[in-house]
Specification:
With 176 residues, the protein is α+β, with helices and mostly antiparallel strands. It has seven helices and five strands. It has two domains: 65 residues; 80 residues, 3-Layer(aba) Sandwich (Glutaredoxin). The chain starts with 19 loop residues before the first helix and ends in a 5-residue tail after the last helix.
């Protein structure tokens, strides 16, 4: 598949000097077997994220060409779905539940404590990529509210003191 860009596009081909062409090639391989029709864009994004851990910027022009749309349309879909990443995931990610039960039981204070101890706002990671904090939606584990999830493990009910201790342990490189 050859990428083509019209002159009015703000996008340019992936930068081969920084591994962009290698990523673009990986994305092309991952698109094999997916119909190039818009209803299949979300499954394509999930496949890319499952394989690479995120959807890199180099994937956008490849996807736009494959699905016969614009890079802006692709980015619109990517930015709409909070579960789709555009940056590599941190080594350890704390997923903070924003569901109603967690919020009613003090989840907002847990979030504030985590952000303060980590020194990092929601949906970001420490500069070294070691720990990240990410907002997630309720998945029905309300009996543990308020809770966080780390590596698929649920931790809750969680109070402010426990959240502070958890964040400190993680910053020290200790397991949750």
């Amino acid at each position: 598949m050859v990428l083509s860009f019209n002159r009015s596009s703000r996008w340019s081909p992936p930068d081969a000097a920084h591994g962009g062409e290698e990523v673009a090639s990986q994305v092309r391989v991952l698109l094999e077997g997916i119909k190039p029709e818009r209803p299949f864009l979300l499954p394509a994004l999930h496949r890319i994220q499952e394989e690479l851990g995120y959807v890199p910027k180099e994937a956008v022009p490849v996807l736009a060409s494959y699905f016969n749309t614009t890079p802006a349309a692709i980015f619109g879909v990517i930015s709409f779905y909070s579960e789709i990443r555009t940056e590599p995931p941190p080594k350890v990610e704390i997923e903070w539940c924003s569901g109603p039960a967690c919020l009613l039981k003090g989840g907002g204070k847990v979030r504030t404590a985590l952000e303060a101890v980590l020194g990092s706002p929601m949906n970001s990671a420490l500069p070294d990529g070691s720990i990240g904090l990410r907002l997630v939606q309720c998945d029905g584990t309300c009996h543990l509210a308020p809770l966080v999830r780390i590596g698929g493990r649920y931790i809750g009910p969680l109070g402010v003191a426990e959240a502070i201790e958890l964040a400190r342990r993680l910053k020290e490189g200790k397991p949750p």
